[in-house]
Amino acid sequence: MFQIEFQLAEQRLSGLASFATERPVTTKAQLRVALRDKPVMVMLHGWQDNAASFAPLLGKLAEQFHVVAIDWPGHGLSAPRAADNFYHFIDYVDDLAQLVALLDQPQVTVVGHSMGALVAVCYAAAFVDKVNGMVLIEGLAPLSEAEHDAPQRLRQGIESRQRYRDRAQQRQSRSMGAFQQALDLRCAVNDVTPEQIRPLVERAVCLRDGRWYWRHDNRLRCDSLYRMAHSQVSALVSSVQCPILSIIGESGYRQLKLQQPDDQGWQQLEQIKVAGGHHCHLQSPEQVAEHIVLFSSKFNALAR
C-alpha cells in the first residue's frame, strides 16, 4: 500500500491507497491515469481509528479495486480541524463528498466501519447517483434520539466542550513511556490481539522526546450538541438505493442485528455475521474480504 494525501477545500486528508500518485492530490488530473481499468473503493474507518483499520483487507481488495482508505480529520496522519471546530458528524459527509468529487469516478463502492458506516449511509442517501454499493461493518443508520431529548443533548454537549477547554493543558502532557502501553490499551478496549491491531496503533501514535503520544485530536471526545430525530434517520435510510451488505460480529453490537431489514426502511440490504466483535474485520479479515469481493462482484458485473 502507498501513502496518499488529498487536499480538500479546507482540509488535508491522509490515507492508504493501492496505487501511487503525486502528493498531495489537488486535482482530478493527478488521479486520471492511476484510476484506470478497475472500479474504485473508498474505505471509511471508525471513531478514533484510522486508515490502517483496514490493513488486513487491503491486499485482497486491491486485486479487484483501486482502493483508497482515508484518515478522517483529526485521526491518523490527517490534519485536525480548525481550532473552533468540534467535529460535527455531518461535516464528515462533506469531507466524503469532496473526496469522491476529486476521485472523479461515475460511481464508487464505499466500505465503512462503525462511524464510517454511518457517514456512508448519509452520503449514499444524499448522492444516490454516486454510490453503486455499500458495505457497512458493525454500523448501520446514523445515531438518533427522541426530539424531547434535544435540550439535554445541547446542554450535555456544551458542558463537554467546557470540560475539554478546562483540561486542555493537562491532556497535552499525557504520554506513554513505551509503544507497548498504547498497544496494550487498544487491545483491552477493543478486545483484539496485539497482532490484529498493531498496524492501526502504529498509525495512531507518534514519538516525541522519548515519549509516545496519541495523534488523534482530543476534541473528538467531546459530546455532540445534537442528534438527528428518528424521522430524519428514517428518511435517510429509505433514500439509499444501492445494494448494501451489512457485516456484523458474532459478539458485536446487538442492536445492529436486523430481523426484517425491510421493516427498517432498507431497500436492498443483506446482513451476514462473522466471528469477532465490533472490530470483526480485524479478527476475521479473510472472511470479511471474501464477503466484500463476492458482494461487489454482483453489481460490478452488471455495470460492465
From TrEMBL:
One cellular-component annotation, GO: membrane
PANTHER family: HYDROLASE, PUTATIVE (AFU_ORTHOLOGUE AFUA_2G14860)-RELATED, MONOACYLGLYCEROL LIPASE
The AB hydrolase-1 domain, residue ranges: 39-186
Record GO terms (molecular function): acyltransferase activity; hydrolase activity
Keywords annotated in UniProt: Acyltransferase, Hydrolase, Transferase
Keyword Hydrolase recorded: yes
Superkingdom: Bacteria
Protein name as catalogued: Hydrolase/acyltransferase
